[in-house]
Design a protein that fits this description.
This protein has 148 residues and is mainly alpha-helical. 82% of the residues lie in helices and 0% in strands. The longest helix is centred in the first third of the chain and has 34 residues. The mean pLDDT is 93.
């Protein structure tokens, strides 16, 4: 197995875990929690998912940066959003910063104040994180055809 294939495989497994976990949360756990007005369902899922989900995200970040350097060894082009692989890398970096911002917002603002009555703001947050993770996957598929 080549280094590139190993990195790509780890990256895709991390994406499957991260995105799949958020899809399960958004489409299965959250609707039940909202119907029951029971924030503990979301908190319990998060506690179970976090030890798997956060390492998966970390694997994606590390392997993503190494793969990005293989596709486009000019990081300055990533922030310029130059066409092709550089643009796709730049968009993925923007999505990463959005993900980090949402994670910090959840950890510092939403979760500490979470009650059954404050479940709706968290639901919007979960929707944004899920959409961002799906966008990561969609942008990632463009690498197969040459980037954005």
């Amino acid at each position: 197995m080549t280094t590139h294939l190993l990195l790509l495989s780890l990256h895709l497994i991390g994406a499957a875990v991260w995105t799949g976990g958020h899809l399960v949360l958004a489409l299965r756990v959250l609707p039940k929690a909202l119907r029951a007005k029971d924030a503990s369902l979301v908190v319990d899922f998060e506690r179970a998912f976090e030890p798997v989900g956060l390492p998966a995200l970390l694997v994606q970040v590390v392997t993503g940066l190494v793969l990005a350097l293989q596709y486009s060894d000019a990081p300055a082009q990533w922030v310029e959003l130059a066409p092709g692989f550089s643009r796709a890398i730049g968009v993925k970096l923007i999505l990463l910063f959005i993900t980090i911002g949402l994670a910090l917002h959840a950890r510092l603002r939403l979760i500490p104040r979470l009650t059954d009555e404050r479940l709706v703001p968290l639901a919007w947050h979960i929707g944004l994180v899920t959409l961002t993770s799906v966008a990561f996957v969609i942008v990632g598929t463009t690498f197969r055809v040459g980037g954005l």
